[in-house]
Amino acid sequence: MARYIIGRIVQALTVLWGAYTITYAILYLLPGDPLSIMLTASGVEMDTLSADQIAKARHYYGLDQGTMEQYFHLLGRLLTGDFGTSLSSGRPVAAMLAERLPQTLMLAGTAVALSIVFGFAFAWLGAWLRWKPLRAVLRRLPAIGISIPVYWTGLLFIQIFAFSLGWFPSAGNTGWQSLVLPAVTLAIPSAAIYAQILLRGFDDVWAEPFIATARAKGLRRGQIQLRHVLRNASLPILTLVGLQVGHTVSGAVLVETVFTRVGVGRLVQEAVLRQDIPVVLAVVTISAAAFVAVNLVVDLLYPLLDPRIAGLATAG
Amino acid sequence: MDAQPDSFGPAIAKAESEDIIIRSAQWRRWSEALRAVRARPGFLLAAGFIVIVLLAAAAPGLLTPLDPYATAPLVKLKPPSLVHWFGTDELGRDLFTRVVYGARLSVQAALLAVAIGLLGGSSLGLVAGFLGGRADAAIMRLIDVLLALPGLLLALAIVTAIGFGTVPVAIAVGFGILPGFARTMRAEVMRVKTLAYVEAARLGGAGWGRVLRHHILPNASAAVIVLATLDFGVAILVASGLSFLGYGAAPPAAEWGTLIANGRRFLITAPWVSLVPGFVVALAVFALNHIARTLEEMGR
C-alpha cells in the first residue's frame, strides 16, 4: 500500500513537472522574439530603443542567458514560490494570484458540488421514472447540456434571471447572490456528463442478477435504487470528477469573463490579451497543479472505496 | 469492425441459393447502412443541419444575398423578422448573413483543429500501439502530461505565444484535442494487432507495412472517425470560446464567438444579437454530438 501511494505521488510530480516544461517551451521558445512581446506587454515600443537599451532589457528579462539556464533559473524560483513579475502591471505574480485565487476556488468548488448534485438528481429521476416518453426526453437532455457553450448559458441566465426577473446580480463578486448564476452556469456541462454516465451505469446495474435477488427479497424499487444501484453505479463518477477539473478550470475562464468577476480566470484572460507571459505561465501551471492534485486524491481514495483496487495495489 | 476482409461472403451466398440475386458485399453494406439511417430521423435532421453549416462555410453567398459588412444605421438593432431572420446588429448589419459568413471562419478553424489533432494524435497513437515497449512508454508519458493541461489553458498559452487570429486559434485547439486521438488510436491498434486475421496475413507472407495499411488501419479507424466527429463539435465549442474571449479574427470579420462577444454590450436592449448566434453554435455542436453517437451505436 505504501508503495502504491509513493508511486502515485512520484508520478503526479513528474506529470506536473512535464506540464510546466511544455508550457515554458510554448511561451518562451515558440515565439520568434519573446523580447519584443515582453516589451510590448510592458508598454514600451521596441523601435524607440537604442541597441544598448535593448541589450539591457534583454538582460533584465533574463533573455540573454542560454535556454537551459533560463529554464532552470525560472524553475528554481518557482520552487521557492516566486512566479516572477507581471509585465504589464509590474507586480509580483504570486501576490496577484493570492488576491484572486480564493474567489476562483469558491466559484469552482461550488460549481463542482452543484454539478455532482445535479448529475445525481437527474440520473436518479431518469432511472426511477417509468413513463417511456419522459424517460426518452430525460435521456436526450444531457447531450444538450454538453453541447451548449458555457458563455452562452451565462449570457442567457443574465438575460433571464438578472435583467428580466432581477433575482440575481449580473456581475460582480459581492455576496452569495453573485455566486449563484456563475456557479450554476459552470456546473451544467459537468452535471450533464455525470448524468449521462450515471444513467448508463444505472441501466447496467438494474440488469444485474443481484437486483433480481433484491426484488425477490421484497425490496421496493426506491430501496433497491438507493441501496444497490446507486452504490454500484456511482464509483466511476469519482474518476470522472477528477477528469472534469480541467473542464471546470477552462470553464471558469469563460464564466468569469461573462459575469465580469474578479478571479484567476479573468486574470489570465486579460494577461493573454496583453501577452503577459509570466502571468500566463503561472496560471497554466497552477491549473495543471490543481488537475494533478485532485486526480492524485481520487487515485488515493479509490482503494478505500473499492477493496478490489487495494488488492491489486498491494499485489502489484 | 465491419470492414473485415470478407472475400468468402459472396461465395457462401452462391453455394446456398442459386435463384437469389447475389449482390456484392459492398452494395449490401450500403443498403444496410441506408436502412439503419432511415430508422433514425434524428440523425437525418442532425446531418442535414451540418450539411447546411458546411455549405455556409464553403459558399456563404448561396445562402444569403446580403453583404455581411454592409452597414445600415437606419435599421440598427432590429429584432428578428421576415426580412432579417436573426435581426440586425448595432450597425444595422444583417445578423443571419453575419452568422453564415462567420460559419466560414469557425468551421475552417474547427476543421483545421481536427486535422491537426487527428493527424498528430493518430500517428503518435499508431507508433505507440504498433511498436510498444519504450516508444509506447515515452509517448504515453507525453500524452499524460498533455492531458494534465486543461484544454482551454493550453490553448491560451499557445495563443499567447503565436498571436491572435483564426489560424492560431485553430492550432491551439488542435493541440488540445490531440491526446484523445492518440489514446483512441493506440487502444484500437493494440486491439486489432492481436486479432487472428492479422496473424493470418503475417503467415501469408505480408510485411508489417502491408498489414498496417490493409488490415490494422482500416479496422482501427472506425473509433477514430467517431472521435473526429465528436471533436469537430468540441473544436467548434473551444474555438468559439477563444474568439469570445477576444483572440479570434480581427474585426470586421467575425467568427461565431466574436459575434456573441459583440452582442454582450446590447444584452439588455437587444438580447438576440448575442443569443441567436450562440444558439446556432449550440445547435451545430449538438448535431455533431448526435451524429457521433449514432455512428458509435451503428458501429457496434
Shape of chain B: flat
Binned, the helix content of chain A reads over 70%
Biggest sheet statistics of chain B: none
**Roughly how many Å is the radius of gyration of chain B?**
23 Å
Strand content of chain A: under 5%
Task: Assess the beta-strand content of chain B as a share of residues.
Answer: under 5%
Multimerization status: heterodimer
Topology summary:
The complex is a heterodimer of chains A (316) and B (300).
Chain A: H1 2-29, H2 34-41, H3 51-60, H4 67-79, H5 93-128, H6 132-147, H7 150-164, H8 177-206, H9 209-217, H10 221-233, H11 235-258, H12 264-273, H13 277-305, H14 307-315
Helix pairs in contact in A: 1-13, 5-6, 5-8, 5-11, 6-8, 7-8, 7-11, 8-10, 8-11, 9-10, 11-12, 11-13, 12-13, 13-14
Chain B: H1 9-16, H2 25-38, H3 41-58, H4 60-63, H5 95-131, H6 133-148, H7 151-162, H8 166-193, H9 196-203, H10 208-244, H11 256-263, H12 272-299
Helix pairs in contact in B: 3-5, 3-12, 5-6, 5-8, 5-10, 6-8, 7-8, 8-10, 9-10, 10-11, 10-12, 11-12
What does this structure look like?
The complex is a heterodimer of chains A (316) and B (300). Chain A is mainly alpha-helical and 316 residues long. Chain A has helices spanning 2-29, 34-41, 51-60, 67-79, 93-128, 132-147, 150-164, 177-206, 209-217, 221-233, 235-258, 264-273, 277-305, 307-315. In chain A, helix 8 (177-206) crosses helix 10. In chain B, helix 11 (256-263) runs antiparallel to helix 12 (272-299). The interface between A and B is large, with 50 and 45 residues.
Descriptors:
heterodimer; A: 316 residues; mainly alpha; 79% helix; 0% strand; globular; B: 300 residues; 12 helices; flat; disordered N terminus
Structure described in brief:
With 316 residues, chain A is mainly α. Chain A is built from 14 helices and no strands.
